[in-house]
Amino acid sequence: MDDEEARTRLLDAAEELFYRHGIQAVGMDRIRTASGVPLKRLYRLFPAKESLVTAYLERRDRQWLTSLRTAALAPAEPRARVLAVFDWLACWFAEPDFRGCAFLNAYGELGAAAPEIVRVHKAELHALLADLTSDPALADRLLILTEGATTVAALAPGPEPARRAREIAELLLPTG
Question: Would you say 106 and 58 are in contact if contact means Cβ atoms under 8 Å apart?
């Protein structure tokens, strides 16, 4: 196994374990066991747990935002693009392994010690919403709707919080 494969296996294991059980509850030995990567190589690739947490969140950020952006940009009409965000959220919330927002979960566990990618991720989400609406104030409101729906869904998984948030978004969006 080369370093790239080892890195991928470690990040896959970290994502599964950190997202399901929490960052603080999962030790490096557990990640080593789940990934099948020797401990020496794990620490060569990720010298500290913090570096693995950051890499996991950076990869998740790229994947999550790419998927959301693709879904949001699929419709031609601007209003439909914003509403597609909430349709995407509904699908995400219905996934069997949904455990809420990995970035807010990380911040909840680590507080001020959370990697900067947590704040960057939320800023990127806001920027996407601003791009979709061309209205920063509306983007602020939509961010609160998306974050609120995600928090509600974390406590009671399923698509309903996204559907309710979509209804509110429809009221906020200009018509025509």
Answer: no
For residue range 75-121, list pLDDT tens digits in order.
Answer: 999 999 999 999 999 999 999 999 999 999 999 999 999 999 999 99
CB 145 within 8 A of CB 66: no
Residue range 120-164, pLDDT digits in tens = 999 999 999 999 999 999 999 999 999 999 999 999 999 999 999
CB of 94 closer than 8 Å to CB of 158:
yes
Residue 176 pLDDT > 80: no
- Secondary structure string (H, E, C) spanning 56-122: HHHHHHHHHHHHHHHHHHCCCCHHHHHHHHHHHHHHHHCCCCCCCCHHHHHHHHHHHHCCCHHHHHH
CB contact at 8 A, 106 and 118: yes
What is the C-alpha to C-alpha distance for residues 138 and 162, in angstroms, rounded to an integer?
Answer: 17
Residue found by looking up tokens 């509306």 in the block = 138
CB of 99 within 8 A of CB of 15? no
